[in-house]
C-alpha cells in the first residue's frame, strides 16, 4: 500500500549513493545497485554472456531466438525490447525529450544525453592499452580494439563487405535495400543516416557551426571548413 501511495505522490525515498538515481521501492534500488558492481550472476546458457539483472538476460534471449515482438506502426521496423521501440519512435516524431543542462543540446535517448555530458566534463576513463586513445565508455574501447586486431565480425550477406561495428553494417545494408528512414520534417527529403539528415537540416536553419579561426568564415559542414583552410595554407606558402 505504501509503495502505491509513493507512486501517486511521485515520492522516491530510496536513492542510489553512487549516481543519485531515486526509486519508489527498496527492491528496485537493490536491483539497480548491481549495475554499479561487477557482479553479473545471470548467464546465458547459449553463449555464456552474463548480465547483472534477470530482465537483461531475458531480453538477451531474443538475440538467439530472433524474436522481435515490438513493431513500429509507422515504418514496420521490429525490436526485441519495448524501450528500443520507444526510442525509435522519436525518429519519426522528431521529439528529443532529453536536454543537456550545459549546452541545451537535445537527444532522443537519455543514455545518449548522459554520454554527451561526459564530453563537457572531459571524462574519458577507458584507455586503450595499445595506442593510448581514451574513451568515455567501456564498450567504445572494445569496439576500438577491433581496429588493432583488424577484426570485422559483421559481414554483409549481399556483397561480403565486412565491418567492425553492427551499426556500420546496418547503415551499409541501406545501399542494397535503398531504405532511407531519416526524413526531413521541413521538406520531406529522406536520407540513409541520421548524420546526413542533421547536415541537411542546416540548409533550412542556415546554421554554420564550423568556423575558420583565421578569418572567421563559417560553414555548415566540417569538410567544407577543411577545404577552406587549404586556401590559407596556400597563402602562407606563397608568402614565403
Automatic annotation (TrEMBL):
Pfam families in alphabetical order: zf-C2H2
MF terms in GO: DNA-binding transcription factor activity, RNA polymerase II-specific; RNA polymerase II transcription regulatory region sequence-specific DNA binding; zinc ion binding
SUPFAM superfamilies attached to this UniProt entry: beta-beta-alpha zinc fingers
Protein localization: Nucleus
Residues in C2H2-type domain copies: 14-41, 42-69, 70-97, 98-125, 126-153, 154-181, 182-209, 210-237
PROSITE patterns: ZINC_FINGER_C2H2_1, ZINC_FINGER_C2H2_2
Keywords (A to Z) from UniProt: DNA-binding, Metal-binding, Nucleus, Repeat, Transcription, Transcription regulation, Zinc, Zinc-finger
InterPro entries: Znf_C2H2_sf, Znf_C2H2_type
Main location: nucleus
GO cellular component terms listed in the entry, alphabetical order: nucleus
Family statement drawn from the similarity comment of this UniProt entry: Belongs to the krueppel C2H2-type zinc-finger protein family.
Stated name of the protein: Zinc finger protein 568
Species for this entry: Araneus ventricosus
Amino acid at each position: 500500500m505504501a509503495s502505491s501511495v509513493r507512486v501517486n505522490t511521485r515520492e522516491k525515498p530510496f536513492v542510489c549513493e553512487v549516481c543519485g538515481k531515486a526509486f519508489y521501492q527498496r527492491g528496485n534500488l537493490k536491483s539497480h545497485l548491481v549495475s554499479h558492481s561487477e557482479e553479473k550472476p545471470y548467464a546465458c546458457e547459449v553463449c555464456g554472456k552474463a548480465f547483472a539483472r534477470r530482465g537483461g538476460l531475458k531480453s538477451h534471449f531474443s538475440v538467439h531466438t530472433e524474436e522481435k515482438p515490438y513493431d513500429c506502426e509507422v515504418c514496420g521496423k521490429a525490436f526485441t525490447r519495448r524501450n528500443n521501440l520507444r526510442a525509435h519512435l522519436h525518429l519519426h516524431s522528431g521529439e528529443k525529450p532529453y536536454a543537456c543542462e550545459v549546452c541545451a543540446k537535445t537527444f532522443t535517448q537519455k543514455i545518449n544525453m548522459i554520454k554527451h555530458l561526459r564530453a563537457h566534463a572531459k571524462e574519458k576513463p577507458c584507455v586503450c592499452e595499445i595506442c593510448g586513445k581514451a574513451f568515455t565508455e567501456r564498450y567504445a574501447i572494445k569496439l576500438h580494439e577491433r581496429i588493432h586486431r583488424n577484426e570485422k565480425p559483421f559481414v554483409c550477406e549481399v556483397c561480403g563487405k565486412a565491418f567492425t561495428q553492427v551499426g556500420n553494417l546496418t547503415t551499409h545494408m541501406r545501399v542494397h535495400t535503398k531504405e532511407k528512414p531519416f526524413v526531413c520534417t521541413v521538406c520531406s527529403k529522406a536520407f540513409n543516416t541520421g548524420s546526413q539528415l542533421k547536415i541537411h537540416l542546416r540548409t533550412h536553419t542556415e546554421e554554420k557551426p564550423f568556423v575558420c579561426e583565421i578569418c572567421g568564415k563559417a560553414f555548415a559542414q566540417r569538410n567544407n571548413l577543411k577545404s577552406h583552410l587549404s586556401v590559407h595554407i596556400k597563402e602562407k606558402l606563397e608568402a614565403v
